[in-house]
Amino acid sequence: MQFPEKGLAEADIWLEMEAARKGDVDWRGGRLPGFYVHFANDDVDRIGKMALEKFHATNALGLGAFPSIRKFESEVVDWALSLFHANGGAGSITSGGTESIFIAMKTAREWAKANRPEVTKPKMVISKSAHPAFDKAAKYLGLEVVRIEPRTDFKTDIDALVAAIDEQTIIMVGSAPQFTVGVFDQIDELAEIAASRNIWFHTDACVGGFLAPFAEQNGFPIPPWDFRVKGVKSISADLHKYGFTPKGASIVAFSDAEDSKYQVFDFDNWSRGRYLTHTFAGTRTGANIAASWAVMRFLGNEGYRKIAEQIWQVRDKLIKLIPEIDGLFIYGKPELTVMSYGSKTLDVSDIAAGLSSKGWYTVAPSPNPPAINLGILSLAFGEVVDTYLADLAEVVDELKSGDRSYDRSAIGSYGTQ
Ligand SMILES: Cc1ncc(COP(=O)(O)O)c(C=O)c1O
């Protein structure tokens, strides 16, 4: 397609863009259970959008030019550190979970160069349930990754992991929780093992980082995961997930502010002089930082607790009612708000196709274990969860009776474009 010679009138721009999004999933209608969009309520959404608009032109590469963004970033980072029970510490806002993980792994690698100089082929040992962002970071950073099959309860197989550690191992990781089945790894045990061997330990709380603190305050038992656990050196926690900020915002946090010196890219061999950044990007939008500040300041601790309570009610309903549908069961014991369900008799791809045909954007089931992944990412889903459960029961009935088969090509995708 060639670049059009003439511009388009503003009204026509909006017409064409509205037409283009006719096929987009109805996320506000809650038709997207478990993926892509986190949503608390319309007020939170509006605050984030207004802040994006107000600060759209700012560039966080130039915090001297935009002291507003410096203030917003430093306050959001401080709030996160206090929620994660850091004693001091440091952190940055990145563009998302993948970048936070990348920066944490980069920091760990540089730390190891200084503290484990004998290592020549740095390696990380992680459970297979850890997010692919760790392998992505490892590819860029020249790290080897060893992935260990999880236990039958989906937590880390610590014995197998310890057996895989060798003198080149510089990084261990635990998820809080892991995406899909929704269990936490045994962060306290893993961090202790890491500390005793001078290995960097990272908690991936991209999912749980901004929900677990409030669920805990609400009295729900949350396994240990944050800086209260000795040996946890870094945490990734996504603002754009349960922080409910506009997409493009996550926190990478370090328990020891000293370690953040390994985080920076500091370059002094450029004709323009010194160039120093804390995250991967050069030019970095300040709008997402401003919007994160606005949403967090709007909600405060109290607002997040209230949302956590609302989400928990939906979670409890799903955990109770899904296994009441003939042959369905929930894998493991979800410890936060993401979960996965399977069927004793049916192929989960048929169930996914059935749900898709009823207008639920359902992504391809995960293969191991065969499961439909579900999560209360959005309270828009909470508004229609009863309809979801009724449709799910109907799909199962129809599949069991053999009355219907569903078109599998309607199943959606995740992470494969
Ligand atoms: C546990 C976990 N870690 C990391 C990520 C990566 O986050 P992002 O998609 O924001 O890069 C995700 C995304 O769902 C996740 O669930």
Automatic annotation (TrEMBL):
This is Aspartate aminotransferase family protein. Belongs to the group II decarboxylase family. Sphingosine-1-phosphate lyase subfamily. InterPro entries: GrpII_AminoAcid_Decarb, PyrdxlP-dep_de-COase, PyrdxlP-dep_Trfase, PyrdxlP-dep_Trfase_major, PyrdxlP-dep_Trfase_small. Keywords: Aminotransferase, Lyase, Pyridoxal phosphate, Transferase. Signal peptide: none annotated. GO terms for molecular function: transaminase activity. Its cofactor is pyridoxal 5'-phosphate. PANTHER family: PTHR42735, SPHINGOSINE-1-PHOSPHATE LYASE 1.
